[in-house]
Design goal:
There is one protein chain. Helix 1 links the parallel strand 1 and strand 2 (44-48). With 375 residues, this protein is α+β, with helices and mostly antiparallel strands. Mean pLDDT is 92; it is low at 1-7. It is built from 9 helices and 17 strands. The protein is globular and about 60 Å long. The chain has helices at 24-41, 70-75, 116-122, 135-146, 170-178, 182-188, 244-248, 254-273, 311-323; strands at 11-16, 44-48, 58-63, 87-88, 129-132, 151-155, 165-167, 190-194, 197-209, 212-224, 230-241, 278-279, 281-290, 296-304, 329-338, 349-356, 360-369. Helix 1 (24-41) packs parallel to helix 9 (311-323). The protein folds into 3 domains: 11-92; 93-195, Dna Ligase, domain 1 (2-Layer Sandwich); 198-369, D-amino Acid Aminotransferase, Chain A, domain 1 (2-Layer Sandwich), CATH 3.30.470.
Length: 375
């Protein structure tokens, strides 16, 4: 790893705040993962980045979100994937779900840096849908898609499935759009996507830190938070040492193989078509389900070029591979459990346990399982 700064001295791993506002539980988990990354890099975790500290240090950054400010990245000497856990893009919409879909025909709003080439390359890897940046375009896209069945309206900066609304008809579409902040939509975008039933969501990704590379496929689980809403509950990842080619060499079931291939196509389109794109953490969510016409569908929902819910499993695998050169694969699961009633399982590695001011009592932990457990 080259590292930021002058390359002299021990590497310091630092958290880098962005526009994203983190909850207490996220801050604690990011600190824990920062310490683990420091172990992997042979350095030390020194907390949140402080620009007032002396210059010339060798820094490795862990941003709270995908970086969307190339000038600031250059100022911090973030030159490549070796300098950051996460990624860097040149425009805000590229860091969100909005990058996944094309604009409607004759769209009235087109953000700077929009890439038709990306959608030409990645179009077969995503679900039917549109990205929009104005209220007029949202109405046009929604009405067009309602002809084929219910549509899902997805605020692109929301996480864990929060804020999404399914519209069955024009009236519900109008009501859903009335809830959107179109000043925010103008910058970040809004997704109008076909709604699927009987959905299975796969995670496919790759991480690279300190010369180590791990790739994986996995499934996500849902849970209910303390308010009763259905939200992200964790991921179970089957992780291999090496790149996507090694992952494809595994005996994957047909739906999993399709998800991996779609993630690879999406990833290649991003690398080819997004100027200045870098990422050491590349995670893709792929949904497979049935649309209103009874057709089986599969496609990438969104990318995550930032520290995320599955990162604890990813970093654990990198540490395990670094510690044991003979180890080539393992299974690691992450869990987010709300409320005090569910006991911790044995061998749980706790990242957070406490009363979060916004979410209530929450536990986050990881578990290691045999790779050959049920996939």
């Amino acid at each position: 790893m080259r590292g930021s700064g002058t390359g002299q001295g021990r590497i310091e791993v630092v958290l880098l705040p962005t526009e994203k506002i983190l909850g207490q539980h996220e801050v604690v988990v990011h600190q824990a993962l920062g310490r683990q990354l420091a172990r992997l890099l042979g350095g030390e975790f020194t907390g949140t980045f402080d620009a007032a500290q002396p210059q010339g240090r060798s820094l490795y950054f862990v941003p709270s979100d995908t970086l969307v400010d190339p000038p600031r990245a250059r100022q911090l000497n973030i030159r490549g994937a070796d300098d950051v856990f996460g990624g860097l893009v040149s425009e805000p919409f590229m860091a969100t779900k909005a990058i996944s879909h094309a604009l409607p025909d004759q769209a009235s709003a087109r953000p700077p840096g929009w890439s038709e080439a990306f959608h030409d390359q990645a179009g077969d890897a995503v679900l039917a849908g549109f990205s929009v940046f104005s209220e007029a375009d949202a109405r046009q896209a929604g009405q067009q898609m309602l002809a084929d069945g219910p549509v899902r309206i997805k605020p692109v900066r929301a996480t864990a499935g929060r804020g999404q609304i399914v519209a069955q008809d024009s009236g519900e579409l109008t009501a859903a759009l009335a809830e959107q902040d179109f000043a925010e939509v103008a910058r970040w975008g809004l997704v109008i996507e076909q709604d699927l039933q009987d959905v299975v969501t796969y995670s496919v990704g790759q991480v690279s830190v300190a010369g180590g590379v791990a790739s994986y496929h996995g499934t996500q689980s849902l849970t209910r938070d303390n308010q009763g809403a259905t939200v992200y509950g964790g991921s179970c990842l089957w992780i291999v040492r090496g790149g996507f080619d090694v992952l494809l060499d595994q005996p994957l079931q047909a739906p999993v193989r399709r998800a991996v291939q779609q993630a690879i196509a999406y990833d290649r389109a991003a690398q080819a078509c997004l100027p200045g794109f870098i990422a050491s953490r590349r995670n893709y969510d792929i949904a497979q389900g049935v649309n209103a016409r009874g057709q089986a569908c599969s496609g990438v929902l969104e990318q995550s070029w930032r520290i995320g819910g599955a990162s604890a499993a990813e970093i654990h695998a990198l540490l395990a591979f670094a510690a044991d050169p003979a180890l080539s694969r393992l299974c690691v699961s992450t869990h987010e459990v709300y409320g005090r009633d569910t006991p911790l399982p044995s061998h749980a590695q706790v990242l957070y346990e406490g009363e979060d001011p916004q979410l209530g009592f929450l536990r986050k932990y990881t578990q290691v399982q045999p790779y050959d457990c049920e996939q």
